[in-house]
Amino acid sequence: MRISTNTIFEMGSGKISDLQVALARTQQQISTNRRILSPSDDPVAAAAALGMDQALSINAQFGTNRSNAKSALSEEESVLQSVTRLLQDVKTLSVNAGNGSLADEQRQILANELRGRYDELLGLANSRDGSGNYIFGGYQTSSPPFSKTTAGVSYDGDQGQRMLQVGPARQMASSDSGNSVFENNRTGNGRFVSSAAAGNTGTGTVGTGAVTDLTQLTGRNYSIAFTVDPTTGATTYDVNQIAPPLSLSTGNPYVSGQAIAFDGMRIEIAGKPANGDVFDVSPSTDQSVFKTLDDLLNTLMAPGAGPLGQTRLTNGLNAANVNLDNALDNILSVRTSIGARLKEIDSLDSAGDDLKIQYSQTLSTLQDIDPVEAYSRFTQQQYTLEAARQSFIKISGLSLFNMLT
To answer: What is the number of structural domains in the chain?
Structure first.
């Protein structure tokens, strides 16, 4: 069979070109450390690698969201830590105000200090984060959530919690509304509030009271009315339900400090109530911590001289101390929730790091080259290409004219 010179040149150049393409491809694989340079190289592996790439991107976004949530919660916790210290100082101030040796002028000094604390608390409630957003405004992050009015402090935010997706199946609140932090403080013992009527003229003081049987609570308003016999001086009391009107008991002999029990509640009244004095019992409600401070300020401003003044002061301070404790408990509850969320973020971060390693290993298996195999193939292809070039030179030089002498 005869092979023309043209065929020899075409076959030789074609094979050399193929070897050069293969060598260039191997060189590109080595330089990029990728086995798959285009989806056509391995369609199945390319599709799986694309899925792994997307999973890595989503996992990285979850990590960014967790970082943002952690930053927001840490800023909120820092503010609430300051609020806790402030309320503890106010509680100390309230206890000091109950010192019977203090005159009205000295309590005025405490009232002035309380005004400063009040403004400081308002500033903390209107705190901003690092981005300039108000922390406790709910979804209303561009305007102060709390503002002073003639009636006290008004909450202008909403009850929303800003949520972030921190995991494949986990959304987490990165904030708490000012309503839940500063407004939702239960009054009294959390079930009912006992208080002395403003027109009382005796020295009767009322305690916080306690629930003895939850099943008997009715959630209605009651009054405990005292009667002093002008002849014998004996003191009795009547327990009445306000609405619908109902007399629960009448003519009960009064003993100072002895529990008065009815409808699952127990209340202690001490001192000497005057004829016609009334003590009210009503269901607990939610009260703003600013209202608690307002009430305490009014108590400190009122005259406290004489038995009647001391009685009003004692009743006012008792109510303020209980409500301050409730406000502190609520702040503690929010801080506990923040701590739990921060701990969960740490756990999710650890799981996210593990997923990143797992996804990266799978992606590497799918698309990365085997360095030993790739470098060996590259060397072999170099030798093969060089041999092809040398042999082509030899073959292309063959001619009958070279045989003539």
So the answer is: 2
Backbone angles phi, psi at 304, to 5 degrees: -120, 15
Tokens 């009294």, residue located = 188
Give the H/E segment covering residue 165. strand 163-167
Which residue did the predictor score with more confidence, 182 or 360? 182
Quote the pLDDT of residue 48. Answer: 79
Cα separation, 160 vs 341, whole angstroms: 17
Q: Is residue 215 part of a domain?
A: yes
**Angle subtended by helix axes 289-301 and 306-367, to nearest 10:** 160
Model-level pTM?
0.82
Which structural domain, as residue segments, surrounds residue 271? 192-284
For 63-86, the pLDDT digits (tens) are 999 999 999 999 999 999 999 999
**Which residues are bridge partners to 185 per DSSP?**
287
pLDDT band at 36, cuts 50/70/90? low
Task: Write the secondary structure of 313-377 as one string of H (helix), E (strand) and C (coil).
Answer: HHHHHHHHHHHHHHHHHHHHHHHHHHHHHHHHHHHHHHHHHHHHHHHHHHHHHHHECCHHHHHHH
Same domain (yes/no): 76, 174? yes
Q: How far apart are CA 344 and CA 347, in angstroms?
A: 5
Residue 39, H or E segment: none
Q: Quick one: 156 and 276 in the same domain?
A: no
